[in-house]
Every structure is written in C-alpha cells, then in structure tokens.
Write a structure and sequence with these properties.
Layout lengths: L7 H10 L14 E2 L6 E7 L6 E11 L3 E11 L14 E6 L4 E10 L3 E10 L7 E2 L3 E2 L4 E7 L5 E10 L3 E10 L38 H9 L3
Antiparallel strand pairs: 1-12, 2-11, 3-4, 3-5, 6-7, 6-10, 7-8, 7-9, 11-12
Amino acid sequence: MRVKGLGVAAAVLAALTIGAAPALADLDDGQLGGPPAASGVGDDTLCPAGQAVTGVEGATRIIGGFIPIIAVATVQCSGDGVASTMGSGGGTAGSTSCPAGQVAVGIAGREGDFVDYLQLRCQNADGTGPITNSSGFGGGFGTADGPYDCPTGTVLTGLRGESINGETIRYVEIVCATVIVDEDGDGIADTPPPAEKDECMDGGWQSFNNPSFRNQGQCVKYVATRQ
C-alpha cells in the first residue's frame, strides 16, 4: 500500500485499513491496545517471582506509513532479574522507568488497534505516597486509556497479552502480585536469614537477601554468630 503522495484524509483511511489508528480498541476494558486478532498469540513479559517492575524497555515501529506503535517490550525488575520479552524483532529503541526508590503499580497510555504509548504508574516501594505517571514512550496517536492499577497492597510484576504472529504487540494487561518490601525499600521480596549452616551449602547462600552474602563462608559465619 502506498501512503506517500496521499492527502491527509486518505492517509488516515489507509492507516485504518491496516489497523493502525484508534478504530477498534475499547476504552476501560482492562487492557491497553487493540482487541484479540486472528493472527495473535499469547505473549508476556514477566519479572521473576518476588520482584516488581521498575521500568520497560522496548522498540517502536511505524505502521500505516507514519504511525509509531510499541512493538516489543521487556520489563525491568527490582532485583535485576531477567524478564521474558513480549514481541520480537527490531525497531526504534524506547524506554520508560519509575524514579529511584519507586516501583510500578499499574499502566496507562494511548491505544488504537495496537499500543501507541505506554506509561508506568509509579509509587514508593513501601506503598506510601501518591501514584504518578512515568514519562512513557511510543507515539502520539491513539486514544488515552487507563489507568489500570494493581489492587492496593500489590505491585506490577509484568505484562501479559497478545502479539501478532509473536512479533508485534497487539495489547497488554497488567500482572500483579504481593511483593514484601525490605527495609531498603527496594521492592525485592525478603527471605528469612539462614538459621543452620547447612542452608549455606551448595550455593544456598546465594538465595538470601536479608542479609545477603558474598560467599558460603560469610553465610556460615553469620549463622555461627547467632547460635
């Protein structure tokens, strides 16, 4: 389809034809983006258990000749855990993140038949203070939708939805869970400290974060001082 040389009205009509403008998405439906598609497949980007979303990195692509949409997204996690990626392939890099000391508790943005713009809804990691929108990334088309926030006492731990042929995100929904915040306010679920030296064996020392240990010997010494 040629868009170059068309008038503005014709160009918009061309975009509508391939599902690039805000024609089919329903507002306040619990998801950001367009409706399920025949070529869509289930897709997600999730933090490891016990970690909260602190940012999103991804890629935008142009459809309809001039409309940027978010095609790929990978959530960033509070414990530096590696998350799966939603969508695939290249594009123009983009990202959004919560301020230091905060975690995501929801999303907002703009939608058409796809996700046009994505923002995180951010709050202090201990659950106090107001919820504010991150700067977001993506394009300026589509209709504003959201916010979609996690229930009180829970945080955003990922995004789930659909991508077209596993490549271009069609829509996203929030995934929420309870995350116990430690005294550092880092949004990482605390583990109880070791009570027996056997818990430090076979790499077990790497599982603790309250406190954390650099090696097995440090873990064993910690236990010995408390017996």
